[in-house]
Amino acid sequence: MPLLESSSYRPPVWLRNGHINTIYPYYFRKKSLLPYKRERFSTPDNDFYDVDWLLSENKKRLCILLHGLEGSSGSQYIRGNAKTLTNHEFNIAAINFRSCSGEINRQLKMYHSGFTEDLHHFIQNVEANFDEIFLCGFSLGGNVAMKYAGDGVYTLSPKIKAIAGVSVPCDLRAGSIKIMERKNHFYETKFLETLLNKVKIKHQHHPDRIDIRWLSKVKTLWDFDDRFTSSLHGFQDAEDYYHTCNSKQFLSHIKIPALIINAKDDTFLPESSYPYDEAKSNENLFLMTPKYGGHVGFTTFGTDSYWNETNVLKFFMQYSMI
After folding, report:
1. If residue 94 lies in a helix (H) or strand (E), which one and from where to where?
2. 211, 223, 15, 247: which is closest to 119 by C-alpha?
3. What is the pLDDT of residue 2?
4. How many CB atoms neighbour CB 297 within 10 A?
5. Strand 91-96 with 48-54, pairing
6. Is residue 130 a contact partner of residue 141, using CB atoms and an 8 Å limit?
7. Rounded Cα gap, residues 221 and 139, in angstroms
8. CA-CA distance, 184 to 216, in Å (whole number)?
């Protein structure tokens, strides 16, 4: 499908910087006070994940929101999208990946860029209550959504009408190398702080199954994926994990309308995470690559909704029959 027009995002001059647009909403966006209602879902492997609901009077249309690395339903981008969608009669289910709801999960494994098991489990549990389902993932969550739609591991519910991904690192290996660049050291350090803390907590629960002597040797996300993510989720190493879970290889197989919004100044994304060829060859895949926006940024003034939120809403409404 031809690339969608992306020039409508025109931030102020001072926001035409990928780092500033990434950081600004994290620290300065007014937090939407949303009346979430939390529900815990038990998994077949004796674990759990928590989902925060926003239910409208119209119970027919559901959007499932998937957060990024070490995010949660409380992340500003999840709240912003939830508010925009609920204003247009979408019910919201903001999934907190395992270990991300404020309580560590029971099992050794947590979540990762290709972990679609809980997403499918959730859809199976709730699809009977809604007529239409939409998925929207951010960063890591965007990779999860695209992989789920294209890898063929699960049969998709016919109620899923469209999906969207914002700031999607669809080439995981190249993305892991990209975030090791000096300019991204601040972000990588922040991610590692919380990830390594979770490993320490898990060691307390499973002292015989987690060796924490290597923690001091983890300096990058690649190191973490090589030593922890891979071993606890059945991959040989980081290379195997990235190869197996990167969604780019599955984009050509997506058979439902799918939108990817990746800003050209996203400091996290390598060139290979802009799937121009895949979008041109698959009539179901739509791609927007605005010049500015940062990583899950797209700061917008004068309206409650950010630019990416408005475009995701427009895209979903095209495919809603309600």
Report:
1. strand 91-96
2. 247
3. 61
4. 31
5. antiparallel
6. no
7. 15
8. 20
Q: How far apart are CA 310 and CA 313, in angstroms?
A: 5
pTM, two decimal places: 0.97
User: Which one-letter amino acid corresponds to residue 277?
Assistant: D
Amino acid at 3: L
Residue with tokens 């994304």: 269
Q: How far apart are CA 85 and CA 23, in angstroms?
A: 23
5 in Cβ contact with 261 (< 8 Å): no
**Dist. CA 31–CA 79, nearest whole Å:** 8
Among 146, 137, 147, 161, CA closest to 81: 137
Query: Using CA atoms, how far apart are residues 317 and 89, in angstroms rounded to an integer?
Result: 11
Tokens standing for residue 150 = 């294209």
**160-166 and 132-138 as β-strands: parallel, antiparallel, unpaired?**
parallel
Q: How far apart are CA 104 and CA 234, in angstroms?
A: 20
Quick one: which H or E segment has residue 52?
strand 48-54
Confidence band of 75 (pLDDT split at 50, 70, 90): very high
Does residue 257 sit in helix, strand or coil? coil
Q: Read out DSSP for 143-202? A: HHHHHHHHS-SSPPPTTEEEEEEES---SHHHHHHHTTSGGGHHHHHHHHHHHHHHHHHH
**Domain architecture of the chain: domains with CATH:** 13-170+246-318 (3.40.50.1820), 172-245 (no CATH)
Q: Of all helices (H) and strands (E), which one includes residue 117?
A: helix 117-126
The two beta strands, 37-42 and 160-166, are: unpaired
**Chain length of the chain:** 322
Collapsing DSSP states into helix, strand and coil, what is residue 272? helix
pLDDT (tens digit per residue) in 148-187: 999 999 999 999 999 999 999 999 999 999 999 999 999 9
